[in-house]
Amino acid sequence: MPSPRAAPAPAPVPSLTPHLYVPTPERPVRAKVRYLPADTQVLPHSHPWAQVALSAEGVIRLTAAHGTAHGTYIVPPSRALWIPPGVEHAVAMVEDAQLRTLYLYQPRGRAGPPGPGAGDAAWRQCRVLEVSDLLRALVRELDTTPDGHAPLPPEALRRERHLNALVLDELRRARAVRLGVQLPRDKRLRHLCEAVLADPTRHETLEAWARDTGASPRTVARLFRQELGSTFTQWRQQVVLAKAVSLAAARVPMGRIAAELGYSASAFSAMVRRTVGMPPGRFFGQQGAGTVAPALLIE
User: Fold this and answer.
1) Quick check: 223 and 189 in contact, CB under 8 A?
2) Residue 81 in contact with residue 62, Cβ under 8 Å?
3) pTM over cut 0.90
């Protein structure tokens, strides 16, 4: 009896109608919601306003290219990704997801959520943000009607202005998760980095990874410093944390996460503390004994 064939992956889809949710000075925050099945790929695109990507349900992956820098971001429900205007990005659904998007009006020459504190250079780059319970609730309440429909009545517009003010304030207050793993331009190093992303536990030493590229360990170490501004060990730790995010989003026990990533529980805890400055239980949002809640990291 022939084995059943796997269901084909959904075909890539174009950008999800951002032109129907254009933010303006009068309506500086526009909201959109889409339900998308696992493996859906949204093709690369950009727009002249800022974006905040959140997943209300399920895990999504965003890839952004800002100048010569490239990064991949895993976004579970407890985090959000800020994308500045003009930055090309693509989206993939790791699992069935409810994708909520905020589009934010950006005055000329300014960056970040409009209001006090806007214009910070940090907002000119992609930023990983913690999502507070209040922000999550506010996003659910925002009107998601696209342009071209009947205009909102005055009472609805007044309510939207109040919600917008709170959303912008929560975004300005949101703690940035200062983690990121860039991908290099050098072809040899790019090949090595993609192999580490696919399976960071395959080799334990830089020498073993370098053999796969045909370059010497000294050359690989120099390329890491030149192109990524870090050592191989520092870069690989970020990849390990990114892999831990996917496991944490599935509520995998912390001890099992450590084991699957090649660490003892104590060594994993020490690495997380050293890298992000807090214990794993706090960073991953531990809920209940031995489980971890979703977190967001950049690959």
Assistant:
1) yes
2) yes
3) no
Whose CA is closest to 257, among 273, 274, 270, 240?
240
* pLDDT tens readout for residues 58-104: 878 888 886 656 677 777 777 899 999 999 999 988 788 899 999 99
CATH superfamily of 18-173: Jelly Rolls (2.60.120.10)
Task: Write out pLDDT tens, residues 235-248.
Answer: 888 888 877 876 77
Closest Cα partner for 43 from 14, 72, 65?
14
CA 100 to CA 58: how far, in whole Å?
Answer: 11
Burial profile 276-296: b = 16 or more Cβ within 10 angstroms, e = fewer: beeebeebbbbeeeebbbbbb
What residue ranges do the domains of the chain occupy?
Answer: 18-173, 187-298
CA distances in angstroms from 276 to 70, 74, 214, 237, 282, listed in the order given: 21, 17, 33, 11, 10
Choosing among 3.30.160.20, 1.10.10.60, 3.30.360.10, 1.25.40.10, the CATH entry for 187-298 is 1.10.10.60
